[in-house]
Amino acid sequence: MIQQPLLSTPLYDLHVELGCRMVPFAGYNMPVQYQSILGEIKAVREGVGIFDVSHMGRFFIDGTDARALLNWVHTANINDEMPFGRARYGLLCKRDGGIIDDGIVYRMSEDVYMLIANAGNSAKVFDWLTYWRNERFPEARINDSTTHISMIAVQGPKAIELVASISEFDPDLVRPFRVTRCLVDERPAMVARTGYTGEDGVEIMPHAGDSPRLWKKLIAAGAVPCGLGARDILRLEAALLLHGSDMDETVNPIEAGLERFVAMDTDFCGKEAVEAVLKKGKQRQLVGFRTIERGTVPRSHAPILVEMSAIGEVASGAFSPTLDMNIGLGYVPNRFAAPGTALTIEVRGKFLDAVVVPLPFYSRPSP
């Protein structure tokens, strides 16, 4: 098998110049850590951090069939009543209910939408959109703008104030899960009030050529540059699922606890399979757990045991510096899913006592 060369985001040279450690991720050479992962997490929880997420797929879908195409492939309600500038999170499912990817749809104008896909699934999502366009929705056009538009996540309790100080972004007009077009650092960009850290913030999407200047501007304004290492722990603390770890094509949305993002009053691909699980009842479900002692960190695929019998495996696990404990997610049979249930996690021959806990592990303080 021929190894494909790694892709780079428009910020790659700047990451290297600033001394960031780079690693292969989802086909890209990506920043994993600037200075300290713990320091980067602290910056996002207490101040403001920035992430290069330009590797994620950005697809524009337009035309008279655009809404119908997205309403079919996406589990959210992408209906005519969806206001301009609104964003909705949901899933893209196969006929059998397996999750191809999760992503956010933004309604940009009358017949123009944008879909954000995970980097590792971008090609698959583009092919899935194209398949259904050809099968049922010929008046939809799909444009892959991933290489033309960058994406910088600005996250933390001070993120909104910082972004407003260098742009025309008005947080009073652009509430959470909204998107707008405005000038950022005197250059046109899209600004979406979304993120993947559990904190308030935005994802700025400027022209690719404008992103290095914007990255420097954000740092000069007080933002701490962060890598994917911090981002993964932040999203786990907030119990935000990662496709490929916490859900995949073998997982039904109901098992993953994502039913609130499935509009059962719409007709979407995979609906019959989702209805079947709702009717029959799920046999397993995703739960959160913490270990009793800090010690060894539970990692993905580590067996989950009850009375020394395997009942499941860890999907995601990490040490949470915000909570000062080891946390994780995993699928277990329903009878072991109640908070307070004692579990054992096996990690490289060591047996860790753990307990099921409610999700999310972390919620940002109320303003």
The low-pLDDT segments are: none
SS class = alpha+beta
CATH homologous superfamily of the domain at 12-54 and 150-237, by name? Answer: Probable tRNA modification gtpase trme, domain 1
Largest sheet: 6 strands, mixed
CATH architecture classification name of the domain at 12-54 and 150-237: 2-Layer Sandwich
Order of helices and strands: HEEHEEHEEEHEEHEEEHEHHEEEEEE
Helix percent reads 10-25%
Question: The CATH topology of the domain at 12-54 and 150-237 is what?
Answer: Gyrase A, domain 2
Q: Report the C-alpha radius of gyration, rounded.
A: 21 Å
Describe the structure.
The chain is α+β, with helices and mostly antiparallel strands. Among the domains are: 12-54 and 150-237, Probable tRNA modification gtpase trme, domain 1 (Gyrase A, domain 2, 2-Layer Sandwich); 283-357, Elongation Factor Tu (Ef-tu), domain 3 (Beta Barrel). The protein contains eight helices and 19 strands. The chain has helices at 12-17, 37-46, 66-73, 122-135, 159-165, 211-220, 228-237, 271-280; strands at residues 21-25, 28-33, 49-52, 57-62, 87-93, 99-109, 112-117, 141-144, 152-155, 179-184, 187-192, 201-206, 224-226, 284-291, 303-306, 309-320, 325-333, 342-347, 350-357. Strand 6 and strand 7 (112-117) form a beta hairpin. Helix 2 packs across helix 7. The radius of gyration is 21 Å and the shape is globular. The model has no long low-confidence stretch (mean pLDDT 97).
